[in-house]
Amino acid sequence: MSAAITSIGAVTGFGLGIEVTVGALLEGRTAIRPVTRFTTAGLCSSLASEVPENVDLLAAAAGFNQPPPTDRASQLLLAALADALGRRALEPTRRRGVVVGTTKGALERALSSQERGILPTEDVLGGPARTLAAATGALGPVYTTSAACASSAVALGEALALLEEGCDEVVVGGTEALHAFVYDGFHALKALSPAPAAPFDVSRNGLSLGEGAAVLVVESVAHARLQGRKPIALIEGFGSAVDGFDQTAPDPAGSGLLAACQRALAYAGITAHDIDRYHAHGTATVQNDRMEAVVHAALFANRLVPVCAIKGAVGHTLGASAALDVAVCARTLARKLLPPVVNLRHIDASAFVPAVIGAGQASPGGLALIASAGFGGINTAVILRRPG
Amino acid sequence: MRARKRPVAVTATAVWTPGGVWVNARPNAGSAGGALAAWPDAPPLSVVHPKARRPHREATVLVQLAHVLLMARAAADPTAPPPNPAQTDLLLGTARGSAAADGEFLRDLRERGSGFGSPSTFVYTLSTAAPAEVAIALGLRGSLATLTAGGISGLSAVVRAARRVRCGESRACITGGVELAGPAHHLASGEQLREVAALFLLESSPFPSAWPRLSDAELGFEPVATVGNVAGGDCATETLVALAIACVERGEPHPVEVSAHSREGHWARLSVQW
Q1: Of A207, A237, A346, B89, which shows the fewest CB atoms inside 10 Å?
Q2: Of A94, A129, A190, Cβ closest to residue B220
Q3: How far is the CA of B14 from the CAs of A247, A379, B67, B177, in angstroms?
Q4: What ipTM is given for this predicted complex?
Q5: Tens-digit pLDDT profile for residues A192-233
Q6: Contact predicate A210/A311, CB 8 Å
Q7: Is there a contact between B63 and B42 (Cβ–Cβ < 8 Å)?
Q8: Contact residues, chain B, for A121 at CB < 8 Å
Q9: Sign for the pseudo-dihedral over CA of B122, B124, B129, B134
Q10: What is the DSSP string of A46-60?
């Protein structure tokens, strides 16, 4: 069963608005800059993609008549929701669900409690989803999915399932705020690059973290038609698989990602031969990019399916990254454009993919595969189609 | 691309509470505010997961419990082939997520400085790290995720896992919930966290009469302002134990409903029928 994406909103290091982000991406710009919200002294990087200070997240979310959220992940999510909905008003209904993907949710609340030697009474992973539910009047299923860097892709997969079960629409979110706690952790793993991330580039040496959120309103095709809403893109398939290889390193053979892609293709009832573009996870770590190159070659039988990746521009937004990938893919698919891999200049021969370099390129193809791969060996694939 | 609706069977249960460990048996929730009971007969990690490298406590708990869950399934009915690990999913509910590892990593940073956190602890600050260790140990290659819906996260995960199996999206799924404490045991509300790990193996049953079946699984949400004062406090253990009891006790011929409403506004229900 296909599902229609009828509204998209986002906030990233480029600012508020999905078109702000897509415009910057198509121009090949990056939002990875020196970190301002906490000190990075003594760490292996000082860079990240932060939502600019001049973006007033609380003002953006003021129209929802809800108490302002105190955690940044929820604030980002509500700002993205405001961008997605515009003037569209939502009435409370049990036929609307909310699924949010995040890895740390309202982390500052958890840390604040831990500092006092206690645990928060409410769960902190689920806070952003409840904020989104309250703002959208969702009285159907409301929950949070965590699957490392594939968290919001899993949320999209859940949305497909909920629509099959009878929901009219599901508001899907992905959100992650940048916190020193997480930055320190990626430093400890030696995963951060001192230079802006450059996926698939011969000089790449790690990732750049980012923060942001994306919201996608996903409806059954029949419901969207009934409401007179035109789909921006159709979700045709979803697949997921774990590779069981290691906590932090992917299986070099890409067995998990390949299985996820094949499951998504089977779900959609198509083959890899039908795919016109591949939106890579593209973290710019040596291991990830090599693994994706292996998967690309195996999946497409060395066909030069163009590769896009956004983490050189907006950083790695962890639990939000898949939703942002899908949002960018849907918008650029609609415009028949391929966004470039920002910061990529010379493709690493050991991680060769036919990447889009420089500026956006025209592409008439209408089927896209979006890949995500996370710690714990979790892999997902989402297939989008441009409406005919 | 969906198959017809299939019966969903609970083919094994394994529950670990402060009261003890029960495999395919009626569990006891144990004392409030308690840590998981000692388990002298637990399968040694060196045997069930020889490749483990400094696993966090939550990973050790889940690997051991998942191992005995699959062993119990294999022993329960040798004529019914056990699920293929390559096609077995993991979907676990958790409200506390990685609270224990978060607390430990935070303590690292405070004591040693921001550049000197332990990488092996940081890995476990993801709620999926412990279930991922289960996948690595037991060779699972299906999907893997955690689900959070307040104090009924575990029951909610079972609801969603049941749906996957019913629709043919999943052939088998290890589901349930896990809530472990770390350096901190008390909730801000003053309650003490009662630890629990409860796993249920769901399969599309070729022998529907041999095991209890799940049906009428549903989730919903009511904002707390409209729910009022929800009783029950931290209800993760109660709901998971109630589900396990319904799954292991052949009771009345009519379905037993297991339902719960969390203080955060989430609700879940499903029916168990022998």
Answers
A1: A346
A2: A94
A3: 25, 27, 10, 11
A4: 0.97
A5: 999 999 999 999 999 999 999 999 999 999 999 999 999 999
A6: yes
A7: no
A8: 187-189, 191, 263
A9: positive
A10: -EEEPPPTT--HHHH
Taking 90 as the threshold, does the pLDDT of residue A353 lie above it?
yes
CB–CB contact A376 B129 (8 Å): yes
Nearest by CB: A242 against B113, B143, B151: B143
Structural contact between residues A189 and A171, judged by C-beta atoms closer than 8 angstroms: no
Q: DSSP alpha helices (H): ranges in chain B?
A: 45-48, 57-76, 99-112, 119-123, 129-138, 153-166, 224-227, 236-248
CA-to-CA distance for A114 and A269, rounded, in angstroms?
Answer: 48
Query: Which residues, in sequence order, are CB contacts of A163 under 8 Å at separation 6+?
Result: A1, A3, A169, A170, A218, A219, A220
At B206 the pLDDT is 67
Averaged pLDDT for residues A148-162: 98
Which of B63, B110, B127 would you mutate first to test chain A, the one with the most A CBs within 10 A?
B127
Q: Residue A347 has what DSSP assignment?
A: B
Number of CB atoms found within 10 A of residue B272's CB: 23
Which candidate, B250, B241, B188, places its Cα nearest to that of B213? Answer: B250
Q: Coil, strand, or helix at residue B2?
A: coil
Q: How confident is the model at residue B3 (pLDDT cuts 50, 70, 90)?
A: very low
Whole-number percent of chain A with pLDDT over 70: 100
Residues in chain B within 8 Å Cβ distance of A98: 221
- CB contact (8 A) between residue A190 and residue B146: no
Angle, CA of A49, A381 and B174, to the nearest 5°: 105
Give the three-state DSSP class for A274.
helix
CA contacts within 13 A on the Cβ side of B234: 29
pLDDT band for B230, please (50, 70, 90 cuts): very low
In angstroms, the CA B173 to CA B97 distance is: 20
- Chain A contact present for B35, CB below 8 A: no
Residue B228 has pLDDT above 70, yes or no: no
Amino acid at position A292, single letter:
E
Residues, chain A: 388
Helix (H) / strand (E) element for A368: namely strand A367-374
Give Cβ neighbours of residue A233 (< 8 Å, ≥ 6 apart): A4, A5, A329, A330, A333, A334, A384, A385, A386, A387
Residue of A nearest to B131 (CA): A376
Q: What is the pLDDT of residue B19?
A: 93
Q: Is A310 helix (H, G, I), strand (E, B) or coil?
A: coil
Q: Rounded to whole angstroms, how far apart are CA atoms A64 and A196?
A: 36
- B215 in contact with chain A, both atoms CB, cutoff 8 A: no
A-B interface: how many C-beta pairs under 8 angstroms? 226
**What 3 state SS string does A21-46 have?**
HHHHHHCCCCCCEECCCCCCCCCCCC
Query: What mean pLDDT, rounded, does chain A reach?
Result: 96
The DSSP-derived string for B20-47 is EEEESS------TT-PPPP-TTPPPHHH
What is d(CA A347, CA A25) in angstroms, rounded to the nearest whole number?
Answer: 19
Residue located via tokens 């078109």:
A19
Q: Is A34 exposed, middle or buried (0-12, 13-18, 19+ CB in 10 A)?
A: exposed
Q: Is B135 on the interface with A (CB under 8 A)?
A: yes
Report the 10 Å Cβ neighbour count for A98.
Answer: 31
Residue B21 has pLDDT above 70, yes or no: yes
